[in-house]
Amino acid sequence: MVSSGLKGVHRSTLSDANTKRDSRIFEDLFCSILGRCRDLTPRHRFRFNNPLYTIDATTIDLCLSVFTRARFRKAKGAIKMRCLYDHSGALPSFLTVTDGKRHDVTEAKNAGFPLSPDSIVSVDRAYIDYTWPYSLNAKRIWFVTRAKSSIDYTVTGQHPVSGKGIIRDERISLAGQHTRDKHPGDPRLIRFYDEKRKKTLVFLTNNFRLVAAAIARIYKSRWRIELFFKWIKQNLKIKSFLGTSRNAVMTQIWLAMCYYLLLTYIKYQTRYAYSLLQLGRIIRETLFDRKSLVDILTVTPEHMAAVRNGVLQGTLF
User: Fold this and answer.
1) Three-class SS of residue 284?
2) What are phi and psi of 12, to 5 degrees?
3) CA 104 to CA 242: how far, in whole Å?
4) Going by C-beta distance under 8 Å and a sequence separation of 6 or more, which residues neighbour residue 227?
């Protein structure tokens, strides 16, 4: 802060700003940057051309004595951030934030995730009450999920078994009148043996076009959103909030997401060779130095220690 001429910024000043300034300003900024990123990011790594998404949630713990309206358990506060994760470019394309108690499938029904026809979306079992998946089916959106262990069904047809690890590939009809009322369609059930985990997994989908092995790989790709949640919690300071109002919390979350998109934009616009983590570290260490972005992007991971020590002359640039 010395080189910028600032003596310091008080926490209360930032808290007041986050509380009073409408968070929708930063939500609009997020949407604007997202549109620019989509023009640059590469498509997902699967062979099919359908847009591929994952919906999942992460819990952000809060101090209940400070965030009194965010009661999650008896002595614990929390909020849930749900994300529509676009596998093309690893982009958080849609976000919602609710209290920690709100059920995932309830939010999925009400959030209005922007999924276009022919999209493929993978979700975990928390999103399965059969009503919501059937609503996706009616919109020509393909879903891939894990079947619940208590699923009751009858087999109405079989597909040839092909692909490593595929045990069975069946068309089924859900049993029980109440369940049938929720999901009158006949989904596809795939049994897959995971050799690495020594475990049999059962997948449920309404997609009959892709081979069974591709369905299994789509569900496996969900781990990418877990890495995204881990990255933002560790690097974007969204576990400690400067204000306690909903507007302050949302402002900080939207700003963090804007920062993530800006890193993504720089990475793909400049064809940066290293990770977003490395790019973020370089920018953080050189933020108040008068260096061009082109020079900053030439710093390799091996030179990070020198950057932290303030050695920015000659050999690095």
Assistant:
1) helix
2) -65, -30
3) 27
4) none
Residue given tokens 């713990």 in the structure block: 61
Residue 68, number of CB atoms within 10 A of its CB: 11
Q: How far apart are CA 40 and CA 267, in angstroms?
A: 10
Name the CA dihedral angle for 36, 40, 45, 47, rounded to a multiple of 10 degrees. 100
pTM score of the predicted model: 0.85
Largest distance between two CA atoms of the chain: 75
How would you label 131-141 residue by residue, b for 16+ Cβ within 10 Å and e otherwise?
A: ebbbebbeeeb
One-letter amino acid of 194: D
- Quote the CA–CA distance of 69 and 79 in Å, as a whole number: 10
Q: Give the DSSP letter string of 12-58.
A: HHHHHHHHHS-THHHHHHHHHHHHHHHTTSPPPSSSS-S-EEEEEEE
Structure tokens, 247: 């507007």
Give pLDDT tens digits along the chain (317 positions): 444 555 666 666 666 666 777 888 999 999 999 999 998 988 898 989 999 999 999 988 887 767 766 677 776 788 899 999 999 999 999 999 888 888 888 888 888 899 999 999 999 988 888 788 888 988 999 999 999 888 888 999 988 888 889 999 999 988 877 777 777 678 999 999 998 889 999 999 999 999 999 999 999 999 999 999 999 988 887 877 877 788 888 898 999 999 999 999 999 998 888 888 888 888 887 777 777 777 777 777 676 666 656 555 444 44
Give, in order, the Cα–Cα distances in Å from 186 to each of 12, 205, 259, 296, 300: 57, 10, 43, 55, 53
The helix or strand, by DSSP H or E, that contains position 187, with its residue range, turns out to be none
